[in-house]
Amino acid sequence: MKKLLAMVLTVVMAVSVFAGCQPAANNAADANTLKIGMTGPLTGGAAVYGTAVEAGMKIAVAEINAAAEKNGGLKIEFKSQDDEHDNEKATNAYNALKDWGMQIFAGAVTTGPCLAIAPSTVSDNMFMMTPSGSSDKIALTGNNIFQMCFTDPNQGSSAAQLVFDKKLGEKIGVIYDNSDDYSKGLLNGFKTKATELGMTIVEETSFTADNKSDLSTQVNQCKDAGCDFIFLPIYATEASQILTYANKIGYAPKFFGCDGMDGVLTIDGFDAKLAEGLMLMTPFNPDAAESKAFVDQYKAMMNDTVPNQFAADGYDVIYSIYNACVALSINGETPADEVCAKLVDYFKTYKFDGLTGSGMTWDANGMISKIPAAVVIADGKYQAL
Fold first, then answer.
1. Which segment, 2-6, 94-98, 306-310, is predicted with the most confidence on average?
2. What does the pLDDT read at residue 24?
3. Strand order of the sheet with strand 381-384?
4. Number of H helices and number of E strands within the chain?
5. Strand-strand pairing, 201-207 and 145-147
């Protein structure tokens, strides 16, 4: 009996040891499957951006996986995490993706979380490409970090140049978010170029994350200063408040925003008719013929909502990374640090055509170069400015 018991215990211990040596099922490396992770605000006040990026990425992943046989069978396993546009939650979300076995980080969506996560990607040797984090500080954190969208100073500068060239206003007002790096970066680029061009900014007023529920004071300040043009380097939700109040008091200057304005037509509770004539910088036009296939898929996925630039940026991030991985023979068994080293080197000479531009390239700091474009909203659609 003792011998039998000893034999049973030996077998049990052997099985336990063997089982303990097996990798967790969800972390097991599969040569035919790349693991790409993304963090972004999927809930909360900035969810309009995170959910758009997530949907754009999912569309790209579905297309790639459906056609994987053309690329040796290489597919993508995609996982997203909600960071609620909160730096601490973003860091936790990134760590959760690492535990999952992420090889490439396609995030974060907004600037603050990007800046919070970036140092970790440097120490982890994790390739990072943000679809929409636009601060010039992000890519400068490390040579493993790349951006799909314009940096804030460059976009702000381009906006000022366009305002000057098109003679859009003489007395310029600015309303910005003094608590947001994105907004301040755009403002700095705009002011620098405006000064160089001899443009007159007669009113500069701001708000913060703690006092943005009522922006009537800022609108009235611009009105009292006689502003016939207002630059809004802010996000769509706050812009919708400004447009609504300006209409209420019969104030009708020209309004001009940047890529954070994209999505204003879909803000809950906002009368989209008030956005008629609004101008904004965006490299993606959902009404362009070349965007139709993507737009149709997005609308089918997102309850007939028209995609914004953030969705297109997400789509381009996935395709740019995947095409590079195919060219470099990177697969699901390639360690994340090796993936990073290969992609960083490849992107030095990489040219990519996507929804948000053609012939896109990246400089030594990971900042993108593509042609800036602006649109005006007319009859509820984007038209080239």
1. 94-98
2. 37
3. 201-207, 172-177, 229-232, 254-257, 279-281, 374-378, 381-384
4. 12, 15
5. unpaired
Three-class secondary structure of residue 17 per DSSP: helix
This prediction has a pTM of: 0.80
pLDDT at 12 over 80: no
Closest CA to 184 of 175, 193, 171, 172: 175
Which whole-number Å values give the CA distances from 135 to 39, 76, 153, 184, 185, in the listed order?
Answer: 17, 28, 8, 9, 7
Q: What is the C-alpha separation between 356 and 60, in angstroms, rounded?
A: 14
- The span from the CA of 131 to the CA of 152, in Å, is 13
What mean pLDDT, rounded, does the chain reach? 91
The conformational region for residue 64 under phi > 0 = left, psi -120 to 50 = alpha, else beta, is alpha
Distance CA 40, CA 53 (A): 8
Question: 153-282 in CATH: which number?
Answer: 3.40.50.2300
pLDDT at 40: 98
Q: For the chain, which residues make up each domain, given as ranges?
A: 31-149+290-369, 153-282
Between CA 284 and CA 357 the distance in angstroms is 8
At 56-97, the pLDDT tens digits run 999 999 999 999 999 999 999 999 999 999 999 999 999 999
What would the two tokens of residue 147 be?
């951006």
Q: Residue 26: which pLDDT band, with cuts at 50, 70 and 90?
A: very low
Mapped onto helix, strand or coil, the DSSP state of residue 373 is coil
> Hey, what CATH class is 31-149+290-369 in?
alpha beta
In whole angstroms, what is the distance from residue 149 CA to residue 160 CA?
Answer: 18
Tell me if domain 31-149+290-369 and domain 153-282 are identical in fold.
yes
Strand order in the sheet with 357-362: 352-354, 357-362, 368-369
Give dist(CA 256, CA 264) in Å, integer. Answer: 12
What's the N-to-C CA distance of the chain in angstroms?
89
